[in-house]
């Protein structure tokens, strides 16, 4: 099993690299960086080897600026791009990051044409679309980390409110990874029992909770400058699910072609079945009227913004 990470000197790239290396099923991990960052990723690799020796894990870690090295990767994780700073929205990064994502996606399709590409760069729904169109890969092989991290954040907050172990909470957030995310409360359960049947549901303030999920990234960035562990473990969940062909249902940014509410030609956070072939099934979920309205609204907004960014790249 071989995984390559592009933009590996960045905070998310290097944290994801360490999470993945620890998983004990990888044969090879390739860290790709611009030439100016090579020293940093060489240092990361040396530091990781020490930690992995302590854990008794063996994995070969290569560092390079040469895309030849990503050949025959099973999964390529794209984390390159400008990160948010306090007061900067994900959309503000759109035009600059689209150029980076378009350039690197073409390289992935040239040097590792059979791989699955996981996009992390923000605004991730739009960047997934850019990566899909630039790589010309099949739609099942390019997707974004999307709402997986938002869903994990919601899961944690529900577990705290209902005072129950986090593993008992099944919930998801769909739509945009941003202001227009939609919590799927109607199908959220604890241990298989719908949320509304718990007495603590009466004091559960979804607006306040989803506000916290929306602001989670911004709050972390304002306090420690970047998010690292959350995205890194979310990336590791997704890559592990693919490589072990687990067929788990996760919420990632996938290309929609009419599967949900007839929405077409946009990349958006939706529940999917994930396995060795990437997105194996986009699950046509049932929603309440409000959830449906908010999801369709998110789709329209992301589609408009995608159109603007694709125009800036000269692709429309
Ligand atoms: P970071 O620490 O600033 O690292 C970004 C890396 O991208 C840099 O180290 C560099 O890697 C590469 N890079 C920066 N500018 C570049 C340019 N002009 N051309 C080519 N490569 C460039 O940022 P981060 O915190 O790791 O975040 C990386 C991206 O992930 C951001 O867009 C951020 O918003 C996004 N993100 C997404 C999620 C999510 O849930 N979707 C969560 C967290 C972060 P090399 O020098 O090694 O090439």
Description:
With 316 residues, the protein is of the alpha/beta class. The protein has two domains: 2-144, NAD(P)-binding Rossmann-like Domain (Rossmann fold, 3-Layer(aba) Sandwich), CATH 3.40.50.720; 148-313, Lactate dehydrogenase/glycoside hydrolase, family 4, C-terminal (L-2-Hydroxyisocaproate Dehydrogenase, Chain A, domain 2), CATH 3.90.110. The protein contains eight helices and 14 strands. The protein has helices at 11-22, 38-55, 94-111, 124-135, 148-161, 206-224, 229-243, 289-312; strands spanning 2-6, 28-32, 60-64, 75-78, 116-119, 142-144, 169-170, 173-175, 181-183, 189-190, 193-194, 248-257, 264-275, 278-282. The strands form four sheets. A six-stranded parallel β-sheet has the order 3-2-1-4-5-6, with helices on both faces. Helix 1 crosses helix 7 (229-243) and helix 3 packs parallel to helix 4. The protein is globular. The structure holds NADP nicotinamide-adenine-dinucleotide phosphate. NADP nicotinamide-adenine-dinucleotide phosphate (NAP) is lined by residues 7-13, 33-34, 37, 79-84, 93, 97, 100, 120-122, 124, 145, 149, 177, 226-227, 231.
């Amino acid at each position: 099993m071989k995984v390559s990470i592009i933009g590996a000197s960045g905070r998310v790239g290097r944290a994801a690299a360490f999470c993945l290396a620890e998983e004990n099923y990888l044969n090879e991990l390739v860290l790709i960086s611009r030439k100016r960052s090579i020293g940093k990723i060489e240092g990361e690799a040396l530091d990781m080897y020490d930690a992995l020796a302590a854990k008794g894990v063996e994995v070969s870690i290569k560092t390079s600026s040469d895309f030849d090295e990503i050949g025959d990767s099973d999964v390529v994780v794209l984390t390159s791009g400008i990160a948010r700073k306090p007061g900067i929205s994900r959309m503000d990064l759109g035009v600059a990051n689209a150029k980076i994502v378009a350039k690197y996606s073409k390289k992935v399709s040239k040097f590792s044409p059979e791989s699955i590409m996981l996009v992390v760069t923000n605004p991730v729904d739009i960047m997934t679309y850019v990566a899909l169109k630039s790589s010309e890969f099949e739609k099942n092989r390019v997707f974004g980390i999307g709402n997986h991290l938002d869903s994990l954040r919601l899961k944690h907050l529900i577990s705290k409110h209902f005072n129950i172990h986090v593993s008992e909470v099944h919930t998801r957030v769909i739509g945009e990874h941003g202001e227009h995310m939609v919590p799927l409360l109607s199908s959220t359960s604890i241990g298989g029992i719908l949320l509304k049947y718990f007495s603590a549901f009466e004091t559960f303030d979804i607006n306040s909770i989803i506000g916290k999920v929306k602001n989670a990234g911004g709050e972390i960035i304002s306090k420690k400058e970047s998010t690292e562990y959350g995205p890194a473990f979310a990336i590791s969940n997704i890559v592990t699910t693919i490589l072990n062909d687990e067929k788990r249902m996760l919420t990632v940014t996938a290309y929609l072609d009419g599967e949900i509410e007839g929405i077409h030609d946009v990349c958006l956070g939706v529940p999917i079945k994930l396995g060795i072939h990437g997105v194996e099934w986009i699950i046509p979920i049932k929603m309440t009227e409000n959830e449906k309205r908010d999801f369709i609204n998110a789709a329209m907004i992301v589609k408009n913004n995608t159109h603007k960014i694709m125009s800036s790249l000269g692709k429309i």
